Amino acid sequence: xxxxxxxxxxxxxxxxxxxxxxxxxxxxxxxxxxxxxxxxxxxxxxxxxxxxxxxxxxxxxxxxxxxxxxxxxxxxxxxxxxxxxxxxxxxxxxxxxxxxxxxxxxxxxxxxxxxxxxxxxxxxxxxxxxxxxxxxxxxxxxxxxxxxxxxxxxxxxxxxxxxxxxxxxxxxxxxxxxxxxxxxxxxxxxxxxxxxxxxxxxxxxxxxxxxxxxxxxxxxxxxxxxxxxxxxxxxxxxxxxxxxxxxxxxxxxxxxxxxxxxxxxxxxxxxxxxxxxxxxxxxxxxxxxxxxxxxxxxxxxxxxxxxxxxxxxxxxxxxxxxxxxxxxxxx
Length: 331
Ligand code: UFG
Known about the structure:
Blueprint: E1 3-7, H1 12-23, E2 28-32, E3 47-50, H2 56-65, E4 68-73, H3 80-85, H4 87-107, E5 112-118, H5 141-160, E6 163-169, E7 171-173, H6 191-196, E8 206-209, E9 221-222, E10 224-226, H7 227-242, E11 248-252, E12 258-259, H8 260-271, E13 277-280, E14 289-290, H9 295-301, H10 310-323
Parallel strand pairs: 1-2, 1-4, 2-3, 4-5, 5-6, 6-11, 7-10, 8-13, 9-14
Antiparallel strand pairs: 9-12
Helix pairs in contact: 1-7, 2-4, 4-5, 8-10
C-alpha cells in the first residue's frame, strides 16, 4: 500500500484526519497552501508539502516524488458568508483546485478519493432528518461549489474509472482529545468556538442570531458532530474504496438537533462560566433546522460515532481553546 495524500491537511478537519491516519498505521503526505491552515497543526510524522492545488506542476511533482495510493480532499475555502461576497474566490479555490487535482490524479493513475462535502449542498431542507436522496438546492455559493465538486468526481469517474466517496458533514465541532490540535479559524464564525471565547476572556457575550424561528425555543437547531467521528468515517470510506466499493455519498451527523440556546447552556455547564448572551437579528441565509439521517453511513460503512453527547463534545473543544486561546499562534 502506498501513502494517503491529504489535501488541506493543515486545516481544522484535515489535521485531525492526519492524526487518525497515522494512528491507524498509514503513511501520510500532506499538501496545504497554509492560506487558512497552520504548519503546527500537521502531525510531525506526515510528509508536508506547502503549495497550492491550482498549481499543476506542483501537484504533479508531489505525485512523482511520492507513492500515492489515494487522496482525501479537504483543500477548500469554507465560509458561507464570504462565499456570498466573493463567489469567484470559491470557484477558483474549490472548483479550479479540484479540477487540477483530478487531472493530476488521472495522469498518475491514482483512482480513489474521499471528499469533504457539506450539508450546505441541500440548502433549505424539504424534510427532517435529511436523507442523501433529498433535493440538493444550495442557498449559498459555498454549498454550490461543493455540490459542483461532487459532480466533477461523478463525471471524472465515468470517463476515467476513478472512484469517490463524498461525505456531507453537518456541524463539525470539538477538538482532538489528545489536546494537541483543534479548531482555529480567523475570523471565527462558528457557534461553539465563539461561545468559548467568553469564558476565555476574549468576548463579553455570545450573540444569538434570531429568536423567532419555528423551533421549540425559537433559535436555530443544528446537528453537531465531533471532528474525530467525522475523520473516523473517512477511514471507513477509504477502506470501503480499497475493498472495491462503488461511488457513494453519505451524510455525517449524530441525528440529534440542539438549539443555539441549548448549546450555550451546555457550554455554561462545562465551563462553569455564566456566559452572557445577547439576542440579535437573524443571520441571513440560516435555515431553521438541519438534522442528518446518517443511517446509510452506519449501514454501509459501519460508522459508529463515539461523541454523541454534546457535553463531551464541548469539553473537548473547551480543553483545546482554554489551553490555546490564540489557536496555533502564541498571541
Ligand atoms: N450562531 C449564533 N451566534 C453566533 C454564531 C452562530 O447564534 O455568534 C448560530 C447560527 O445562526 C446557526 C448556529 O449558531 O444557527 C450554528 O452556526 P455555525 O456558524 O456554527 O454553523 P452553520 O450551521 O451556519 O454552518 C454549518 C457549517 C457550514 C455549512 C453549514 C450548512 O459550518 O460549513 O452548516 O448550512 F455550510
